[in-house]
Design brief:
The protein is α/β, with parallel strands linked by helices. It is built from 16 helices and twelve strands. A six-stranded mixed sheet has the order 5-4-3-2-1-12. It has a six-stranded mixed sheet with strand order 6-7-8-9-10-11, with helices on one face. Strand 9 and strand 10 (447-450) form a beta hairpin. 50% of the residues are buried.
């Protein structure tokens, strides 16, 4: 017979109750994100997911993983219904649920296989198992954040901690590393409780060390590089995709709100994504308006509009200076949103939902230019709207020399929802991760200037027109998260998958070597001899 299954690899809950716990865990995890933002609940949500997966078969893990993911995503991204109704909401939540459920199988295998390799060894159960589980959780997040198409890294665990005392860890490890440590601590505590090892001080050490790292790690220090005086304008115009508006209404709203800054001394004037509802590279009258605006402040502009080059359309941020061959520089959004800014495989999706897909007429092309402007000798890193959730865009700006970030976004399609607050928390985490100030500017709010430590310097509430005039701190020097973040992701993602594969092979080999031959086999062999 095969080696017995150790108690640590057996299910803690029957399947029906595991599914209920997983559903509750998904809802609780959402509460750790804005607008509620009770960050400690992230640990509760993760614990519910892990406890429900312990000892599950592959199909049991799929069921439990799907219950957890569905309850999380259906609540977390309900704001999508504000834009196109329930069908895209169910579709996106459904895709994330399926992928998360597949990833849950790897977590269940870790709980089944590692205890069988070294039964009764506390280091495996209290150190190796939590590390593998945390690595596999990270690998699943990285998978969801990169596929299909450009992925959807919106619900990453580490992003829930933007306003928690744990956020500073992200400046050393990146968001993925922060999430890894959170899952490790949760998994380690679960094993301490299950095994009763919490009564033995030495066996508590791994969990205590990680808890101390999470709570006591300071923000990585970047160097003071002066200030930049930024005028940032939230026009609150009719910038939504389906908003009814007159021609140039968004442009006029921005101009009206900018008037409050007249006569002020600026280093740069910043407008949000979609702040111009015409292409200034093809519309001479709009270009003249921008020239005049730049001349009136004697300062460059950073503006955004949909632009056309050949047959391609881009979501473009532009550096605009009076008297120059404009735009002086431009950056196209790196990751246009599938089903929002373009429709991948349109022929296929039109067969499924022709009326809905037909509403999305724009087809933005992904940009390939750097997310960086040199503004009067000051490096400005850029991210347009949802590009804020993609690590590579943020890290590239810092490596190119960004001393400050300016994130332009248009939240008009999601007015009065949690979307803008969730996105704002991502911007706050980027400030902490890179050690840079962030000017996060929306067409309709909420807009904020965020310090390198994540605190708020200046702000405009949602749903109002207004302008900020802020001396924004500049920083130089790269954080470990920027320098090593990609390596951390590779190590945690591929490393954990490789470790799981090795564990699976070793378990299979052990089964073969510990399974005796059937009765009578020896007699038969003796007769043959």
């Amino acid at each position: 017979m095969a080696s017995p299954v150790p108690d640590s690899a057996r299910p803690l809950l029957p399947l029906w109750s595991a599914i209920l716990v997983a559903i509750g865990g998904g809802v609780v995890l959402d509460l750790a994100f804005p607008d509620i933002g009770w960050w400690p609940l992230a640990f509760v949500g993760v614990a519910a997911s892990l406890v429900s997966l312990i000892g599950r078969s592959a199909w049991g893990a799929v069921a439990v993983g799907a219950a957890f993911a569905a309850s999380f995503y259906l609540v977390h991204i309900v704001w999508i219904t504000r834009y196109l109704g329930p069908v895209p909401w169910f579709a996106l939540a459904g895709v994330e649920t399926v992928l998360s459920a597949v990833g849950a199988v790897a977590l269940a295998w870790a709980y089944r296989w590692l205890p069988r390799l070294a039964p009764g060894r506390p280091l495996v159960r209290l150190l190796a198992l939590p590390a593998l589980v945390a690595g596999l959780w990270s690998a699943r997040e990285l998978w969801l954040g990169s596929w299909p198409y450009t992925g959807f890294p919106w619900g990453r665990l580490g992003m829930s901690q933007a306003e928690s005392p744990l956020a500073h860890v992200a400046s050393w490890t990146g968001v993925t590393g922060l999430g890894f440590l959170m899952v490790f601590l949760t998994a380690a505590v679960i094993e301490l409780v299950r095994s009763g090892a919490w009564r033995r001080p030495l066996r508590v050490v791994p969990a205590v060390v990680v808890a101390v790292v999470l709570l006591a790690t300071p923000l990585f220090p970047t160097s003071d590089a002066g200030t930049m005086r930024v005028g940032a304008v939230q026009g609150n115009g009719p910038a939504g995709y389906f908003d009814e508006r007159e021609p140039y209404a968004v442009l006029q709203a921005q101009l009206d709100a900018t008037a409050a800054l007249a006569g002020e001394d600026l280093d740069v004037l910043l407008w949000p994504e979609g702040g111009i509802d015409a292409d200034p590279t093809a519309n001479d009258s709009v270009a003249r308006v921008l020239d005049g605006l730049s001349a009136s402040f004697d300062a460059p502009l950073i503006v955004n509009a949909a632009t056309q080059r050949g047959e391609d359309t881009f979501n473009t941020s532009m550096l605009w200076e009076a008297g120059a061959d404009n735009p002086v520089a431009f950056h196209d959004k790196s990751n246009p949103v599938p089903m929002g800014e373009y429709v991948p495989d349109r022929w296929f999706y039109e067969m499924l939902a022709p009326d809905l897909v037909g509403l999305i007429q724009r087809e933005y092309t992904p940009g390939t230019n750097a997310p960086f402007f040199d503004v009067g000798g000051i490096g400005v890193g850029l991210a347009i709207c949802f590009d804020v959730i993609y690590d590579d865009v943020i890290w590239e700006g810092a490596r190119d020399g960004a001393q400050v970030y300016m994130f332009q976004t248009n939240n008009a399609d999601f007015r009065d929802t949690d979307e803008n607050l969730q996105q704002l928390s991502f911007a706050r985490m980027r400030a902490i991760e890179t050690g840079r100030s962030v000017v996060n500017l929306s067409t309709v709010g909420t807009s904020q200037v965020i310090a390198p430590d994540g605190t708020t310097i200046d702000a405009l509430p949602a749903g109002t027109a207004g302008a900020l005039l802020t001396d924004v701190p500049l920083r130089s020097g790269l954080t470990p998260a920027v320098v090593l973040g990609g390596a951390v992701q590779t190590l945690l993602g591929w490393g954990s998958l490789a470790a799981l594969l090795v564990a699976g092979v070793l378990v299979r080999l052990r089964r073969r070597t510990t399974t005796p031959a059937p009765e009578g086999a020896g007699v038969v062999e003796g007769q043959r001899g």
